[in-house]
Amino acid sequence: MPPAAAANSSSDIVVTAQRREERAQDVPISITAFSSDRLQQQGITQSQDLQGAVPSLTVGTSGQGSREAQSFTIRGQGATLQASPGVVVYLNEVPLPSPISVNQQGGPGNFVDLQSMQILNGPQGTLFGRNTTGGAVLLVPQKPTADFGGYVQAKIGAYDNREFEGAVNVPIVDDKVLLRVTGAYQDRDGFTHDVVWNKDRDDLHWYSGRVGLTLRPTETFENYTMAYGAYSSNNGTGQVNRGFNIEGLKAVVDASGNPFPFCQEGPTIPGAIVSCDVYRAAAAEADARGPRKTAYSTDTYQKTKTWGITNTSALDLNDSLTLRNIISYQRFQTRFAVDNDASIFQQDEYDARRFPASGQVTLPGDGTPVEYLPPAPTIPRDRFRTITEELQLQGKLLDDKLNFTVGGFLFDQRPTGSQGASVYGFCPAAFTGFCDSQRLTYAITTKSKALYGQATLDFGAFAPSLDGLKITGGYRYTWDTISGNAAYFTPLTATPGSFACSDGTVVTDATQCQFNARLKTGAPTWTAGIDYRVSPDLLLYGKISRGYKAGGINTNAVFENTRTFQPEKVTSYEGGFKSDFNLAGMGSLLNVSYYYLDYKNIQRAAPDVNGALLGAQILGAVARVQGVEVEASIRPFRGVEIGGNFSYTDAKYKSYEYTTNLPAADCSGGLVAPGGTVDLGCVPFTGVAPYTYSFHVSAEQPLANDLGTLAMFVSYSHTSSQHTAATALPGTEPGEKLEAFGTLSLSIDWRKVANSNLDLGLYATNLTNNLYRIGNPNLYNTYLYHSTIYGEPRMYGVRARYTF
């Protein structure tokens, strides 16, 4: 490292993007890596903290009403309701559990005690367990070492935040049996106050643990077992109401198509119909409360429990070949109640456990007491187990000039109990007793198997003058089978004992509403690339890759032809360079890449409505996505680094058409009849922030008289505006375009205080307390309201860490 270099430069981080340990600067793909120190400096403890810190990455709720349902989108490829993730998160080389109902992977505590975090941009199917179109996030845990030691850390801060984490490393038998135990806990008040229930939403209450055991019975065999568990229980997400679709409320019809307006332009008639001024008054009250207060009719919550065991074995067959096996068993369960419209009305509310008591709440601007309908019975939204098995053979031949990996992967995910939801979708404010609760149950099994291989050849094996010129080729074939059943129905209050099924039929047994579905697909994926180490400081590369994301079953289907959806496919073209160099004696880094994606059969969720139910369907589209990613840093003085990243993403649909089951508006400005082709090509591409960038300054200064080291890290991240409504015509969905925002973070640490093992620090995120939005349900034209989710306010605190 040059004399002016700083510790933990991104160029020095060891990554495993190609399933072997390499410097990040030696890997011919776009990759962002964080060391454990950098994660702490930047205050990265959850998915949302990566927003703006990684080129071409956006983090959002994908239109869902849960802050925990945050998912990654890279280069415009991410999560869709009920579909496989476009960006897979791996912990210890194993994909984390991914539920159907919410777009999250795993539970809390995943970012605790990591050796590194690596974000890989682009398709990764020829080397990693699950196929992806967008990329992968690799969480590499700290593994046991041969030395006894560990750390304890405590934080206190804003919103009565209390955090604790610690780890202990125990060499039970010198270099033969090594143990590491990690635990973490966080308890923090929420920052959105619910004035109806007098509770703070957006609170945090979770704990997690991890145990790692390494066995080395011989010099050629190593076995690493990791067990983890996490539990979270909170008061749910604080959504904020921003208005109602008054014209839509006046035009509601019942299951038979007869007018059933939710309000009228006139006075309230108790027990019959309310004045539309009630909804206007509710919106005005929400606006007056501001973005950090809400008023729910439902006492929301979310509980998540997950645990798993992974085992990795590595046997050196000889100096050139290693046989590896990775097996895992994981379980996941979540249940929650959500008040999506964020108002006192019983409208679009999932799995409500309880409502306010009789007379506790009155209609806004009216004073009429609200009599709520009883809660509907609830069961867990997701409850399943996942098993994976991966066998690999890794090798080096031709004096280590040829590196290869071949392997097979198995994935099996299936439910371990009842799963489903109860929804009060359309309940008029007058509560006439004819509001029906929609019910959904489902049981989906996903199986996947694949064979893959990838090899890299350095032409230096044939001529010394060609040393550093490499070609890479990889191929994979995946077979996916998704099967299961779902029942989407409404118990009819007016005729007890009867149920309206999703296909419009009325039955006397709810199980008659169940449909069965099965989807078998398979596809090849591949990669071909060339890279050349022009000099020790400059790497040039180019590659072409094919990515694939499995299709699935649409449990919310209303019409028979929307019960399954097909896989996504993407062809990625990428080229760039990575460089380390001295600029006027200053250690510098500059990485630049350009990519172009041909993206086909894009999975997009859209409303699916008949006279009885409002469900979902998954549409296919074709798009092109292109962009530029830049990472740069310079170290002008010893212990000082100035750096940042930038990305530009240009995404546009080439074709976005589907056959409609109902009359639907499209980009032509007209109404397309059932059976016709709807053109949505004018709809903006979602999940893409055209511009993201971040800047940081990192500085360390040793103090005199062995008093320790003073370290400071300042970063600013910016994300441009982005669209979130996948099917809404431009201008028809209020708030669907999230505004641009930036956040400033700061950490100051006194390391090795007075030459001890104690570190003290101050930290702050969103230092300027910027108000910004991270999600929008986009249900103004279906469930007739507008609500939104805001990002975290300023968080700050102090921390102490003792290493032993």
Structure description:
The chain has 804 residues and is mainly β. The chain has a single domain (10-803), classed as TonB-dependent receptor, beta-barrel domain (Maltoporin, Chain A), CATH 2.40.170.20. The chain is built from three helices and 53 strands. The chain has a 26-stranded antiparallel beta sheet that branches. Strand 37 and strand 38 form a beta hairpin. The protein starts with 13 loop residues before the first strand and ends with a strand. The model is unreliable at 1-8 (pLDDT under 50). Residues 290-767 form the TonB-dependent receptor-like beta-barrel domain.
Number of helices: 3
**Global mean pLDDT:** 91
Broad shape? globular
Using DSSP, what is the number of strands?
A: 53
What characterizes the major β-sheet?
26 strands, antiparallel
* % residues in beta strands: over 45%
What is the third-level CATH name, the topology? Maltoporin, Chain A
Q: Spans with pLDDT under 50 lasting ≥5 residues?
A: 1-8
> What CATH architecture label applies?
Beta Barrel
Rg (C-alpha, Å): 27 Å
Total discrete domains: 1
What portion of residues is helical? Answer: under 10%
